[in-house]
Amino acid sequence: MRPENDLASRWTPPKRQPGGRNDVRRIMRLFRPYRGRLAFVGFLVGLSSLVSVASPFLLRAILDTAIPQGRTGLLALLALGMIATSVANGVFGVLQTLISTSVGQRVMHDLRTAVYERLQRMSLAFFTRTRTGEVQSRIANDIGGMQATVTSTATSLVSNLTAVIASVVAMVALDWRLTVVSLLLLPVFVWVARKVGRERKKITTERQKQMAAMSAIVTESLSVSGILLGRTMGRADSLTRDFAAESENLVDLEVRSNMQGRWRMAVIGIVMSAMPALLYWAAGLTSSHGGGITIGTLVAFVSLQQGMFRPTVSLLATGVQVQTSLALFQRIFEYLDLPVDITERPDAVTIEHPRGAIRFEDVDFAYDPDAEPTLRGIDLDVPAGGSLAVVGATGSGKSTLSYLVPRLYDVTGGRVTIDGTDVRDLSFDTLAATVGVVSQETYLFHASVAENLRFAKPEATDEEITAAARAAQIHDHIAALPDGYDTVVGERGYRFSGGEKQRLAIARTILRDPPVLILDEATSALDTRTEAAVQDAIDALSAGRTTITIAHRLSTIRDADQIVVLDEGRIVERGSHDELLAQGGRYAALIRRDTDLATAADSAATAA
């Protein structure tokens, strides 16, 4: 049977087919909401291309007409025209950059938000099998790596393509023979660029996986818990060596990614830079055979050809960049395509004033379809305001049982109801408002005490926060702090003791005021004195609420209305404390064990 706290195998994303037309179409759809602004960018690009093409024709007129004929007025006009084209291109370029960057950043925002929203909807099972660093890397590194592509590629593609087409048309208008010479090797260049792009795409996928691995190491080992564990275990040097090894692997991948195809692209650049010499040679041959080309035409043509050089190379580089970025998009699409196991039904039920009656009706649950069930045939009835305690050995399914009420997991058989309504039919807002959970692992944000408490009820007043803290018996301690409720708790609340964190968690739940309360071994890690203080706070929290307690120390559940004993996912005993003791079964054995441990601890303390 699978233990209730087993992390199982580490999650790996489902395999997807290599990127192709579907991924490209999907990427294009990301820009659909901004097509108006992109159309305006396209208009600016067209104007810029027309203005750029005009400049060589002005130059030809200067060389072939204005200067040879001594027409100074025409010369001044043509020169002013060339200056005006430069100014116009500068203005158009700034506007293009502003709009395209704005659109690109909006697309990045949409992607980040979509990934975060999808992850918020994933079941608890996903996060128990996925390293936190892997999730962070997808959002930060993968989406961040797409920034240049998303913010500039669309504009660059349209701008460069338009510039190349306009230049080719102008070159043909000047001399078709020189145009043929200029474009002779272009198909070869395109083939080389596509090949380089495919190679870089493969390396990029490896690089992003390596960055995710490094991010996981940083997240795990440089957290407060990681630092404490590393130092107390004397593993700081070992962790540093592990990180250095991962970083060394990343160095190799980064070098390979940047150098892949660099020589081939450099050869393209050299050939295109040498093209003017080939044009001069071709023009000379043409002239020697009677096909004269004027100096103005030749200079204008070379100017066009050199002007086309930059957008052509940029276009080829953009093609390489797009193929490389497909690897990043595929990693993001893997998260966006994750199946959401727990969803809210379109006709979800809302309960305005829930009473908190809980029923488990022949409930089965398994973490994996092929695994042995963790829970089998669970039938329980907890009336509104009643209390249920669940005990059993580690791995018996206690915590799993509690996870089904707030619907952190869905049952695989039977159903769990609140006030007669299947929890799968309830709206998420109703579930969150109805069920409060206080677990052994208390999580606090790196924020002030007040902000941590207000997470349960953002609109809570200072008076309500203070009242909740008093009920949880933590107000006096908070008030004694230099900054009071404005004190920053530190990462995961490490400025507070275990008992103080538990009472803060209880205060947070009191503030939310749910009618159903799940206590998942909330005092199991505390010493006796602290446990007593926390138990008083729990008693205040539990008053008048339906309470399900997952018990480790049995002394805390003697007064429960009903106690059930789980063994291998089945209920083997049920009854009150006195009834179960009288049966002399498993519960009685657990009580004797607790009594013996407490006696041994008292004897040890007395001896010390």
Automatic annotation (TrEMBL):
Membrane-spanning residues: 38-63, 75-99, 148-170, 176-193, 263-282
PROSITE patterns: ABC_TM1F (PS50929), ABC_TRANSPORTER_1 (PS00211), ABC_TRANSPORTER_2 (PS50893)
Pfam families in the record: ABC_membrane, ABC_tran
Membrane topology value: Multi-pass membrane protein
Domain ABC transporter: 358-593
Domain of life: Bacteria
Alphabetized InterPro entries for the sequence: AAA+_ATPase, ABC1_TM_dom, ABC1_TM_sf, ABC_transporter-like_ATP-bd, ABC_transporter-like_CS, P-loop_NTPase, Type_1_exporter
All residue ranges annotated as the ABC transmembrane type-1 domain in the record: 39-324
Gene3D superfamilies: ABC transporter type 1, transmembrane domain (1.20.1560.10), P-loop containing nucleotide triphosphate hydrolases (3.40.50.300)
CDD domains linked to this entry: ABC_6TM_exporter_like (cd18550)
PANTHER family referenced in this protein's UniProt entry, alphabetically: ATP-BINDING CASSETTE SUB-FAMILY B MEMBER 10, MITOCHONDRIAL (PTHR43394:SF1), ATP-DEPENDENT PERMEASE MDL1, MITOCHONDRIAL (PTHR43394)
Family under the similarity heading: Belongs to the ABC transporter superfamily. Siderophore-Fe(3+) uptake transporter (SIUT) (TC 3.A.1.21) family.
Protein name: ATP-binding cassette, subfamily B
Phylogenetic lineage: Bacteria, Bacillati, Actinomycetota, Actinomycetes, Kitasatosporales
